[in-house]
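sry for the spam today, last one i promise. C-alpha cells for design, 738 residues
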C-alpha cells in the first residue's frame, strides 16, 4: 500500500480539507448528546433554569439569602443587582419592569445587571449554596440542623435574631451538610428555589422553559445540519480523490504495460493485467473512500466520546471498556478466520478472467470440437471456487452485524440498569445517563468503523501489491541515455553480427552465432522448420527482445543505441498473428500513417490485394471492424495487416509468415506487387511456404537456432541439405526448378 502513496500527492489539498471537515463533523456529532442532556436536565427537570443565579428576586428573599453570605459575597451580590422600587423608578420604567416582574407592584425587586461569563460563574458558586440552604430551610425548617423553634416563629427571622457567633455556627453546619450532598442534588435544590421565586414574582416558567428548549433545539438542528453538510462534502471529496487515484494508477499501469517488452509480457498474463487494471484498482478505490471517511473521523469520535462520557459519569466508564474489549475480540476472531481467504480472492478472480477469456476467444474451436460441456465445467469450477471463497468471507463478516447489535443493546441495558441506581441515589441525572448511553454507542461505532478498515485492508493490500508489481516492473528494453540519430539518407539496411539469444531464465541459447546482411533493394527470406527460431530472430530487429551477445544493426547503427521510437518508425512489421482493432478499415490502415491521404491508403490496399473485397463491402473503407477483426477471414485480415504496414512507407519491411492464409494466386500477385513497389526498401520475409520465397534475393536457412545456409533458392538446393529437404517436402523437383 505504501508504494502507491505517491499517487495521492496531487490530492493533498483535498485530503487536508477532508480532515478539516471530518474534525468539524466529529465535534458536531459529539456535541449532540450533550445538548440532549441539557434539554432533559435543564429544560425538563429544571424548567429551563440554567444555573442558580436569579435573573430577579424579591427584596425580602434577597434579605433571607444574605443571611448565609459572607461580607465579601454580600458585596459581590449587591454589585451585580439593581433594586427596582416603584417609588424610585420613573413612570415609564416602572410600566416596563412591572410587565416583566408583576410582583414589583407589591414589593421592591432586585434585577440582575448585565454581567460577563466570569462574573456569572462566581455568582453561581455563591447562589447555588445559599439558594440550596434557603430551599432546605423552607422545606424542612431548622429541625434538620438540631434547632427547636418557638411556635409561630419564622425560621429566617429566628436566624437573623441570633447572636453573630451562633448564627455563624448554624451557617457552618448548614454548609457542611450541603457539602456532603451530591453536586447534582445541590443544583436541583437551588433551581427549585428559583422556580418558586420566579412564580412568586410572576415570571412564567412555561415561557422560560419553552424559550430554553427552543434555543437548545435550534442549536441541535444547526449542529446536525452542519454535521450532515460536512458528511456530504467529505463523501464527495473522498469519491473524487479515490476516482482520481484510480484514474492515475490505471494510466500509470497502462503506460507501463505499453512500454513492456515481450520479456515482461511473458511474465504477466493478459487476464492478470486486465484484472489488475480493473478489479484490483476498484478494491483500492473502495478502501480509499472508507479510509478517507473513517481513518480520521473514527479516532476523533472514539477518543472524544470517551472523554465526554467520562465527563458525564466516570463511574460507568468500565461499561465502555468492557464493550470495546468484547468488540475487539469478535473482530479479531473474524479477522484471523477471514484473512487467508482475502488473499486468495484476487488470484481466483485472475483464474476466472483467464478461463472466461479463453472460452470466449476460442468459442468457434470449442463448437467445432463439441467441447461446450467440458468448457462449461471448467468455468463452473473457477466460478465455484471464487463463489465459495466469497461466501465464506461474507458469512464471517455477516456475523459481525448481529453481534454488534447485540453488544450495543447489552451496553444500553447495562447503562440503564447502573444509571437508574445512581439516579435513585441522587448522583446522576436522567439526561446525563442518556448522554452517556449515546456516547457509549458512538465509541463502539468508532471502533467498529476502524475494524471495518482492517477487515477490508487485507484484500486491498493484496491488490496494491499486485498493482505495484506491474508499476515497479522496469522494462528490460530501454532507450539509451544519449541516443544516436539516423542520418538523413537512411535506407534501411539490416545486419546481424554474431548474434546469440536466450530467453530470460533459460539455460540454452535459442539463436547461436547468427550473421547476415539484408541490403536495401533486396528481399531476404528466413525459412526453417517449426521451432528453429525464425520469429525470435525477426523480433530482435524492432527490439521486442535484445540480443544476449552480438549486435543487430540498422543502417550501420546498433539498434540499442537509438530510441525505440526512431527505430520502429523505420520498420513496417506484419506479425505472424494478425491483430485488427475495433473501428473501421480506414482507421486500421491509418494506424501507422495518421496523415496519409485516402489515395495512399487505397494504393496500399491495392498492393496488398485487398482493394477488391474492401470495395465489395457495403461501406468500403468505412466498414466496421469487430473486436479482433472477427468479421473478416484469415486471408482478409492478413491483407489488411500488410496494407497497414505498406501505408506507413517505412525503409524496412518485416513479414513474419504473413502470407500463410493466402491462396497461391493471391500470394503470387501480392509478391509481384511487393517486388515492384518496394524495389528500394529492405524486405525480410519469414515463411513456411517455400513457393513464397523462391524468388527472394537471399534466403537464410535456420536449423535448431543456427544458420544452416545462406544463398539463393538455386544455390541452397545444391548446397544446403536442410533447405533441400524442407523444399522437397512441399513441392516436386519440377516445381522447385526456376
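last one done:
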Amino acid at each position: 500500500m505504501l508504494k502507491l502513496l505517491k499517487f495521492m500527492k496531487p490530492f493533498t489539498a483535498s485530503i487536508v480539507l477532508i480532515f478539516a471537515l471530518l474534525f468539524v463533523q466529529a465535534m458536531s456529532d459529539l456535541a449532540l448528546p450533550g445538548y440532549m442532556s441539557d434539554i432533559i436536565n435543564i429544560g425538563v427537570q429544571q424548567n429551563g433554569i440554567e444555573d442558580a443565579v436569579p435573573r430577579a428576586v424579591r427584596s425580602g428573599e434577597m434579605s433571607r439569602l444574605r443571611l448565609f453570605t459572607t461580607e465579601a459575597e454580600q458585596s459581590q451580590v449587591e454589585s451585580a443587582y439593581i433594586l427596582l422600587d416603584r417609588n424610585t423608578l420613573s413612570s415609564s420604567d416602572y410600566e416596563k419592569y412591572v410587565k416583566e416582574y408583576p410582583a414589583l407592584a407589591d414589593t421592591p425587586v432586585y434585577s440582575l445587571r448585565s454581567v460577563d461569563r466570569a462574573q456569572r460563574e462566581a455568582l453561581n458558586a455563591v447562589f447555588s449554596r445559599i439558594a440550596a440552604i434557603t430551599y432546605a430551610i423552607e422545606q424542612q425548617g431548622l429541625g434538620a440542623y438540631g434547632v427547636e423553634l418557638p411556635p409561630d416563629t419564622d425560621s429566617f427571622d429566628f436566624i437573623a435574631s441570633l447572636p453573630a457567633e451562633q448564627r455563624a455556627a448554624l451557617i457552618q453546619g448548614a454548609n457542611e451538610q450541603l457539602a456532603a450532598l451530591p453536586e447534582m442534588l445541590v443544583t436541583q435544590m437551588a433551581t427549585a428555589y428559583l422556580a418558586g421565586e420566579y412564580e412568586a414574582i410572576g415570571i412564567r416558567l412555561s415561557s422560560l422553559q419553552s424559550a430554553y428548549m427552543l434555543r437548545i433545539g435550534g442549536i441541535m438542528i444547526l449542529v446536525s445540519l452542519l454535521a450532515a453538510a460536512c458528511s456530504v462534502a467529505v463523501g464527495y471529496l473522498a469519491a473524487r480523490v479515490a476516482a482520481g487515484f484510480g484514474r492515475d494508477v490505471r494510466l500509470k499501469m497502462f503506460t507501463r504495460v505499453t512500454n513492456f517488452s515481450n520479456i515482461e509480457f511473458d511474465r504477466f498474463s493478459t487476464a492478470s493485467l486486465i484484472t489488475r487494471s480493473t478489479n484490483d484498482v476498484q478494491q483500492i478505490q473502495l478502501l480509499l473512500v472508507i479510509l478517507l471517511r473513517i481513518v480520521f473521523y473514527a479516532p476523533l469520535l472514539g477518543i472524544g466520546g470517551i472523554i465526554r462520557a467520562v465527563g458525564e459519569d466516570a463511574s460507568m466508564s468500565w461499561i465502555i471498556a468492557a464493550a470495546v474489549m468484547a468488540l475487539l475480540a469478535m473482530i479479531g476472531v473474524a479477522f484471523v478466520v477471514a484473512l487467508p481467504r482475502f488473499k486468495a480472492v484476487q488470484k481466483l478472480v485472475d483464474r476466472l478472467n483467464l478461463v472466461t477469456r479463453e472460452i470466449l476467444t476460442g468459442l468457434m474451436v470449442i463448437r467445432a470440437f463439441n467441447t461446450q460441456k467440458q468448457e462449461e465445467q471448467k468455468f463452473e469450477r473457477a466460478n465455484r471456487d471464487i463463489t465459495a471463497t466469497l461466501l465464506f468471507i461474507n458469512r464471517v463478516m455477516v456475523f459481525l452485524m448481529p453481534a454488534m447489535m447485540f453488544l450495543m443493546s447489552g451496553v444500553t441495558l447495562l447503562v440503564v440498569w447502573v444509571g437508574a441506581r445512581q439516579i435513585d441515589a441522587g448522583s446522576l441525572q436522567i439526561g446525563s445517563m442518556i448522554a452517556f448511553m449515546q456516547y457509549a454507542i458512538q465509541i463502539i461505532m468508532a471502533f467498529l468503523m476502524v475494524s471495518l478498515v482492517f477487515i477490508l485492508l487485507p484484500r486491498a493490500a493484496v491488490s496494491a501489491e499486485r498493482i505495484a508489481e506491474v508499476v515497479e516492473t522496469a522494462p528490460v528494453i530501454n532507450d539509451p541515455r544519449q541516443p544516436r540519430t539516423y542520418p538523413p539518407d537512411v535506407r534501411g539496411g539490416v545486419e546481424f553480427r554474431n548474434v546469440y539469444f536466450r530467453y530470460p531464465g533459460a539455460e540454452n541459447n535459442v539463436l547461436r552465432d547468427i550473421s547476415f546482411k539484408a541490403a536495401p533493394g533486396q528481399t531476404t527470406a528466413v525459412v526453417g522448420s517449426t521451432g528453429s527460431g525464425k520469429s525470435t530472430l525477426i523480433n530482435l530487429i524492432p527490439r521486442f527482445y535484445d540480443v544476449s551477445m552480438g549486435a543487430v544493426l540498422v543502417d550501420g547503427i546498433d539498434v540499442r543505441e537509438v530510441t525505440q521510437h526512431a527505430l520502429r518508425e523505420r520498420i513496417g512489421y506484419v506479425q505472424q498473428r494478425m491483430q485488427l482493432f475495433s473501428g473501421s478499415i480506414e482507421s486500421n490502415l491509418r494506424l501507422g500513417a495518421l496523415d496519409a491521404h485516402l489515395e495512399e491508403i487505397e494504393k496500399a490496399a491495392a498492393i496488398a490485394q485487398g482493394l477488391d473485397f474492401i470495395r465489395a463491402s457495403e461501406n468500403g473503407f468505412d466498414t466496421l471492424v469487430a473486436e479482433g477483426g472477427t468479421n473478416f477471414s484469415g486471408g482478409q485480415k492478413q491483407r489488411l495487416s500488410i496494407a497497414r504496414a505498406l501505408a506507413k512507407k517505412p525503409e524496412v519491411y518485416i513479414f513474419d509468415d504473413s502470407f500463410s492464409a493466402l491462396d497461391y494466386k493471391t500470394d503470387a500477385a501480392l509478391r509481384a506487387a511487393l517486388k515492384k513497389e518496394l524495389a528500394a526498401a529492405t524486405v525480410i520475409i519469414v515463411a513456411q511456404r517455400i513457393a513464397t520465397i523462391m524468388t527472394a534475393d537471399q534466403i537464410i536457412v535456420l536449423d535448431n537456432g543456427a544458420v544452416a545456409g545462406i544463398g539463393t533458392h538455386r544455390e541452397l538446393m545444391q548446397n544446403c541439405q536442410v533447405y533441400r529437404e524442407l523444399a522437397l517436402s512441399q513441392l516436386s523437383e519440377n516445381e522447385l526448378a526456376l
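Residues 432 and 732 are 105 Å apart (CA to CA). ok im logging off now
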